[in-house]
Structure formats: C-alpha cells, structure tokens
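Database export, one record per block. Field names are fixed; values are copied verbatim from the stored entry.
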Amino acid sequence: MTRRIQLALGLDLLSILLFAIVGRLSHQESVLGAPLTALPFLIGAGLGWYVVRSRSGLDADTVGPGLTVWVFTVVIGLVLRAVTGGGIAASFMVVTLVILGILMIGWRAAAERWLPAGFGAETPAASEDQDVDA
C-alpha cells in the first residue's frame, strides 16, 4: 500500500471521526463515545473502498472514486445506525450527507488541486523496502 493510499485512508478515518466528535459535542455528549458513533460510517467507508478497488481497480484517493466511498459511507452508515437503534431523523440524514461530503470529497478536491501529480506514489526503492518489512 502506497503512502498516498495510507494517507487517503487516514484522512477518511479522520473525517468520519471529526463528524462524530462534532456531532456528539453539539448534543452535549462525551467525545469518548465518538468511535462507537463513527463505527457504522467507518464500516460504510471500508465497504466503499473495497467496492471501488474490486470493481474498477482504482484507489479511492481522488474525487471520482471518492464519490462512491462517500455514498457508501453515508448510506451504509445510516442503515447500520438505524438497525442498531440509533437515531436517523431526516435532519440527521441531511447533515450527515452534507458534512461527510464536505469532509471526504473536500480533502480529495484540495489534494487534486494543490498537490503535485504522483504525490506519495511509491518509488521502486520504497516498494522494495516495504516488501522486506512485510
């Protein structure tokens, strides 16, 4: 896995955790519960990354494939939240869609705009180093 993909996965994880933390704070709830609040959405993001990779062979580190990850994150996250007894009021669904869209698509758009092409791509030497460590 390249550093670019590790960074992309990390940024998605941080985006979802930030969403959960801010949501909990806005309802005067402890941030200690944020990982559990984020869990359904993290599962959705993981499935989204899997689908993008298995269907297209692409990594989900750019806006195009990232749209699929975002949709999976929201839809699967809301479904899992509903079946586990979490609230899914219409306003929560809209906020989830918008905020996760801004966070998950926003970092991809910024990276495409401001980072040089090939940023974080593996060099042959880095690839050999990783194989030795693995």
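Remark 1: Helices lie at 3-26, 34-56, 63-83, 90-114, 124-133.
Remark 2: The CA atoms of residues 61 and 72 lie 15 Å apart.
End of record.
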